[in-house]
Amino acid sequence: MSSPADPLLSVRDLHTGFPIRSALLRRKVGTVQAVSGVSFDLPAGRTLGLVGESGSGKTTLARTVIGLAPPESGQVLFDGRDLLTLPGADLRQARRQMQMVFQDPYASLNPRLTVEQIISEAWLVNPGVVPRNRWATEVKDLLARVGLNPDHADRYPHQFSGGQRQRVGIARALALRPRLVICDEAVSALDVSVQAQVLNLLVDLQAELGLSFLFIAHDLSVVRHISDEVAVMYLGKVVETGTTEQIFTAPVHPYTQALLSAVPVPRPWAAPQRKQILLTGDIPSPVSPPSGCRFRTRCWKAQERCATEEPALADRLGGHSSACHFPEMTVPA
Amino acid sequence: MDNPLLSVQDLTVRFRTRAGTVTAVDQVSFDLAEGETLAILGETGSGKSVTAQALMGLVPRPAGQVSGGRILYDGTDLLARPRSETRRLNGTELAMVFQDPLSSLNPVFRVGAQIGELFRRRRGASRSEARRKAIELMDRVGIPAAARRVDDYPHQFSGGMRQRVMIAMAIALQPRVLIADEPTTALDVTVQAQVMALLAELKAEHRMAMILISHDLGVVAGVADRVMLMYAGRVAETGGLREVYETTGHPYTRGLMASIPALDGPRERLAPIKGSPPDLMRPPAGCAFRPRCEFATGICGTERPELMPVPARPESHRAACHHAKEVVADVVPG
């Protein structure tokens, strides 16, 4: 067992790519570099928020961590052991302790199974966690825990609303008593009033069960609300990481600054000092990322050096890590 | 409002399904003045998109039917005119931008041809003239290298660029009212900011009136003059943007505001609305929001609240709540 100070999950220089094959001979003609050299630590009982736009690689990163996408290189250390080199039985044991909640509560539950079957499937695959004669009771406990009526265990997914389905997804993730739960856009598909309910539920579960969350979302106010630490991704790389406080009050990477400034706030008049940075263009293709700094094609500060020299993720300003040659606390007027 | 450009009165839209009839839009009324931007806000199933469809004559038939009300455009009731006649207004007077630009564009035609088609069919322009106009418009909505990209297909554009194409098509014939249904929901936040800025620019440039439909109270805050919140097919609250956001008169609006995590200040536990929206097949008696409402009393279960003036700005701000006064007094902290 690790001491509380050690991270539960530690990712080191992880690379995950997908081959592009030619239509005719299926020869490899290129690679989509979805995750290229990502490192981070997630301490036990804490939440790391992973933010970035579509194509930033945050979902591929999560899928690599949990074993749904094979990496090209790097390490995924769970409780100090590298999942990429762990032998089968140990790997299964470790995997049991990490579970995932998916984005779409309509697509991620089997419509032909009852909620009880959906949840207890995990015990069927992993014998020994809960004895069969306790399944029904355990399902009821889990449903109560996520705020659903325990008597609805024999219902099918279509009989629940979107928010309730997402609670079923959370109950399923908790069935194997995990230590790490990866939430991939787990609240994005929900209406805002229901989203707030599910966020509160996640916060409560973390406090009760000591869970660690890897929380992936594109909504920055949601990430700020739930995370202890935040990593900002752009085109397969982490461009800035620090405590939630550091990232949201003193971001130094231009991408983080632009991202924060673009978040629509309901009362813009209450923050007149807030300036919006309008980035030009879209995120480039991960098949042929820009040389040097990957953000330079959309950056207002880009200079020659940015095209030739890739900025390393290091403590440059503000006491947290950022990957920019020209870090500044202030935002352009 | 004196002589509104568009006046919707008691609009009611019903859908017949195998399980029963659903009233998706229930006696909705609002006015839109020339050059004004109205945001229609609400969650899934609130009826905001169906309202837009009704304005454009796009309610899916035969399941859906506009079963009551009037849509007065420049004094003419669009619902009383034959479809063949009102169709001609689409594009030239009223135009719409849809949520999902990929499924709204034809994948097998070049983008330039799709924009140019408007000029060819509606203005009798020649092929080369239409192409020139298309490039001009693409340039105007901020598509880089428009002269080259005019011959590209929709799949060759990113989501943000596709939405710009949709906007180019919508403004092509210089409509007086632009209806945008969740125009940025499918887009990333930095691209969303670009598209919203473009819409604000176009609106100012052409003195276009705009109806902006969204589930996001923040997205519309930068451009809307007035907002209208819908819940279960009815108008819950309507008024000037700041009136509604700051002296909120309906518990639903208040609950939505409290459900949004803040981007600054202390991180506090969220105060979400309890429960979930009602089944429109069996709406609750009285106020549809009652089962989720913390202000609810006996009257809310028996009497359906109509829109009533909210004390501070009674001439423009109205809420459909028996307890609007209490809601205003008990302001959301922050």
Automatic annotation (TrEMBL), chain A:
Q: Record's family?
A: Belongs to the ABC transporter superfamily.
Q: CDD domains under this entry?
A: ABC_NikE_OppD_transporters (cd03257)
Family matches, as Gene3D superfamilies: P-loop containing nucleotide triphosphate hydrolases (3.40.50.300)
- What are the GO BP annotations of this UniProt entry? peptide transport; transmembrane transport
**Which domain of life does this protein belong to?**
Bacteria
Instruction: List the PANTHER family.
Output: D,D-DIPEPTIDE TRANSPORT ATP-BINDING PROTEIN DDPF-RELATED (PTHR43776:SF7), TRANSPORT ATP-BINDING PROTEIN (PTHR43776)
- What's one Pfam family the UniProt record gives for this protein? oligo_HPY
InterPro entries the record matches:
AAA+_ATPase (IPR003593), ABC_transp_ATP-bind (IPR050319), ABC_transporter-like_ATP-bd (IPR003439), ABC_transporter-like_CS (IPR017871), Oligopep_ABC_C (IPR013563), P-loop_NTPase (IPR027417)
Keywords attached to this Swiss-Prot or TrEMBL record, sorted alphabetically, are: ATP-binding, Nucleotide-binding, Transport
Q: What is this protein called?
A: Dipeptide ABC transporter ATP-binding protein
Single annotated GO MF:
ATP hydrolysis activity
Automatic annotation (TrEMBL), chain B:
State the membrane topology. Answer: Peripheral membrane protein
PROSITE patterns named among the record's database cross-references: ABC_TRANSPORTER_1, ABC_TRANSPORTER_2
GO biological process, alphabetically ordered: peptide transport
The record's Gene Ontology cellular component field reads: plasma membrane
SUPFAM superfamilies in the record, alphabetically?
P-loop containing nucleoside triphosphate hydrolases
Compartments in which it is found: Cell membrane
UniProt keywords (A-Z) are: ATP-binding, Cell membrane, Membrane, Nucleotide-binding, Transport
Q: What is its main location?
A: membrane
A GO molecular-function annotation: ATP binding
Show the PANTHER family listed in the entry: DIPEPTIDE TRANSPORT ATP-BINDING PROTEIN DPPD, OLIGOPEPTIDE TRANSPORT ATP-BINDING PROTEIN APPD
**What does the similarity note say?**
Belongs to the ABC transporter superfamily.
Q: What is this protein called?
A: ATP-binding cassette domain-containing protein
Question: Source species, please?
Answer: Nonomuraea phyllanthi
Lineage, top ranks: Bacteria, Bacillati, Actinomycetota, Actinomycetes, Streptosporangiales
